[in-house]
Amino acid sequence: MRVPGLLAAARERTGLTDFGDEWFLEPLTVLTTSLAEEARLSVLGLELTRRRLTALLADRLRLRALRLAHPEIQDVEVSVAAEICGLPRTGSTLLHRLLAASPRLTSTLSWETSYPIPFPDEGREAEERKRRARDRARLFLEMSPEFAGIHTIEWDGPEEDVILLDRTFVSMSFDSFYRVPTYGSWLRAADQTPAYRELREWLQVLQWQDPERAGRRWVLKSPHHLTAVDTVLDTFDGCRIVMTHRSPVDAVPSYASMVASIARQYSEQVDPLELGPYWARRFTSALRAFAGVRARRPDRFVDVHFADMLTDPLGQAERVLAALDVAVDEADRAALAAYLERNRAQRHGSHTYTPEDFGLARERLERDFAFYQEVSP
After folding, report:
1. Sheet containing 80-86: order of strands
2. Which of 61, 196, 352, 360 is the most exposed place for a label (fewest CB within 10 A)?
3. Which pLDDT does position 176 carry in this prediction?
4. Which InterPro entries does the record cross-reference, listed alphabetically (predicted)?
5. What is the pLDDT of residue 374?
6. Do the bridges between strand 80-86 and strand 240-245 make them parallel or antiparallel, or are there none, so unpaired?
7. Separation between Cα atoms, residue 23 and residue 197, nearest integer Å
8. Distances in Å between the alpha carbon of 207 and those of 103, 115, 214?
9. Minimal CA–CA distance to 85: which of 291, 243, 298?
């Protein structure tokens, strides 16, 4: 699985040749090297990964061709109201989906993060892309049936914009799916400006396809943005960072459990005792960097606590909307309440684990994250 072969496969798949600016070759090379040397991929995992990387490269080719064919896309004005971030498993998904229910906001949808570019001769309803997204979600849950008890899958609902960033190969998705510590170290030190420039381009493409999004601001979400908070704020003028807070003592083991469920699709040698310490180090570093950005740019942040999301999700959502200058009206309240009711009906299964299952101890977590507990609003 070498870079030249992947590039050739993407060109053959699409019949296109122009990747445009090839800045992405550095992250792709770091990633593929780490996959080859560290990921312990199974035979199936290797094949799935090759297909995935080829598909991401094919989308880069299609993006370039689409923008050349439709230069008006570059004139689409993208306004991002908020990027929701925070550690994973902190209530950010529920908050994101509640805010996205507002008629005045919009979000990336799961099916379009998987298939963001129209197929040839496809109509505005995007029926083929939606069908593939449904099939993809069903297959994912067949391969990881326990995942439904950890995270609600909605093929047609709001989804993390980090999946669009996957096409830049600068994404936390990769060290969540695979054991790639060298890539993870590279990611923490990388300048992500080119990746976020392309994220804006992807949002332009999605907005161009759907005229109903005109005049609506985006509300986006991913823990990945903790790795590039300054870059997010520099890329999207007026964007607020909505930070969801939960004790890392609880959040880190929960995410390690989620990662273990995903990683087993690609490797038969997933060691859960490695996962906890790895993500504890990753998130310690991310939160320290976050604290520095927040101190320099305090006016760009809104805080939400996990406990409050559990007891008063609608009240918290309205409070955040007000902070984003959305004057909440009855249409907003009805939409938020309808989503909350649907979310309660969809939830099933249980998520059971202990820190020790993932090589962690509560006392060590409390000590390592004491700096965050002390400054968390």
Report:
1. 105-106, 217-221, 80-86, 240-245, 301-305
2. 352
3. 94
4. P-loop_NTPase, Stf3_sulfotransferase
5. 57
6. parallel
7. 12
8. 15, 14, 7
9. 243
CATH of 79-375, one of 3.30.830.10, 3.40.50.150, 2.60.40.10, 3.40.50.300: 3.40.50.300
Q: Which of 264, 258, 41 shows the shortest CA–CA distance to 142?
A: 264
**How does DSSP assign 152-171, residue by residue?**
---TTSB--THHHHGGGT--
User: Average pLDDT by consecutive 10-residue portion of the chain (377 residues)?
Assistant: 96 96 97 98 97 97 97 97 92 94 96 93 88 87 63 82 97 96 96 98 97 94 95 96 93 91 93 96 93 93 94 96 95 94 70 88 94 69
Q: Give the pLDDT score at 349.
A: 53
Q: At what angle do helices 25-38 and 181-189 cross, to 10 degrees?
A: 150
φ, ψ for residue 41 (rounded to 5)? -65, 140
Most distant CA atoms of the chain, gap in Å: 58
DSSP letter string, 283-334: HHHHHHHHHHHHHH-GGGEEEEEHHHHHH-HHHHHHHHHHHTT----HHHHH
**228 Cβ contact list (under 8 Å, min separation 6):** 192, 195, 196
Half-sphere exposure of 203 (CA within 13 A, CB side): 26
3-state secondary structure of 83: strand
